[in-house]
Amino acid sequence: MEMMCHEEDSLYANVPDPSARSVESKIRSDEDRKVAAAESGIKRYRLAAVILGLLCMLQAALIIFLLISLLSERDDLKRNNLTQEGWEYFSGSFYYISSTRKTWQESRNYCLQKGADLVIINRKEEHDFTTKFRKLMWIGLTDSETEEKWKWVDGTPLTESYWDSGEPNGGKSENCVKIKKFDSENSWNDLSCSTPLNWICEMKDCP
Ligand code: 2F8
Ligand code: CA
Question: What is the pTM of this model?
Fold first, then answer.
C-alpha cells in the first residue's frame, strides 16, 4: 500500500497545481505592471531631464546675449564720452591732444589718470596722424632709464623711428621726445623732460 501511495505521488508529480499556477500568473502580472510602471517613470524622468537641459541651454544663451549687449552698450557709452571730452578716434585707438602745457612726466600722469598713456607710435600712418595736429607735443618715448636706449612708455624698445636730422643730440640733458616738425617724416627731437609742452595721449579702444 505504501508502495502504491508512492507510485500515485510520482504519477501526479508533473501535473501543475492549478491554484499554484494562478498565484504564479498573478505574481507575474504584478511584476509586469511594476516593470511597466518603472519604465514609464524612467521615460518621464528622461523627458523632464531633456526639458530641463533645454531650459538651462536657453538660460545660458540668454545670459550670454544680455552680457554681450551690456558690454557693447558700455563700450558705446565709453566711446561717446571720450568723443565728447575731445578724444579723437583713429585706427583702433583714441587720442587726446592737450591744449595746455606740462613737463613730460606731468603730461604722462595726465594720460595715466585717464586710463591712457602718452602715445606710442608703431606705424607710419600713426606718425602721420600725430603730425597732422601741427603742435609741438610730448610723445611716450624716453631714454631716462639708460642713456641712448630709447624706450616707449610700455617698456618696448624703439624700432621704427622718425628723428629729425641730427637728432637725438641732447645726451643726458635731453631724455624725452617731442614732435617737432609737421611736414616731414623726420620730425622728432629729444628735449629736456622738464620743458613744458603740449602732449598727446593714446587709449586703445579694445585693450
Ligand atoms: O637744432 C636742434 C636743437 O635745437 C634746440 O637747441 C638749440 C633744442 N633744444 C631746445 O629747444 C632747448 C635741441 O633739442 C635741438 O636738438
Ligand atoms: Ca635734441
Answer: 0.78
Q: Is 163 in the pocket of ligand 1 (CB under 6 A)?
A: no
**Per-residue pLDDT reduced to its tens digit, 3-62:** 444 444 555 555 556 666 677 778 788 889 998 988 999 999 999 999 999 999 999 999
pLDDT of amino acid 14: 58
| Domains of the chain, residue spans | 17-81, 88-204
Q: Which of 172, 186, 189, 197 has most ligand 1 atoms within 8 Å of CB, for mutation?
A: 189
Kindly report the average pLDDT of the chain as a whole number: 91
Query: Which residue CA neighbors atom 11 of ligand 1 most closely?
Result: 191
Which ligand number lies closest to the CA of residue 168?
Answer: 2
Q: Which residue has the cell 499556477?
A: 21
C-alpha span between 117 and 100 (Å, rounded): 16
Decide the pairing of beta strands 151-152 and 88-90. unpaired
C-alpha cell read off for 175? 631724455
Tell me the fold of 88-204.
Mannose-Binding Protein A; Chain A (3.10.100)
Q: For the segment 82-100, what is each residue's pLDDT rounded down to a tens digit?
A: 999 999 999 999 999 999 9
Q: Cα(200)–Cα(68) distance, rounded to whole angstroms?
A: 32
First to last CA, the chain: 109
CA of residue 188 to ligand 2 center, whole Å? 8
Cβ atoms 198, 99 nearer than 8 A: yes
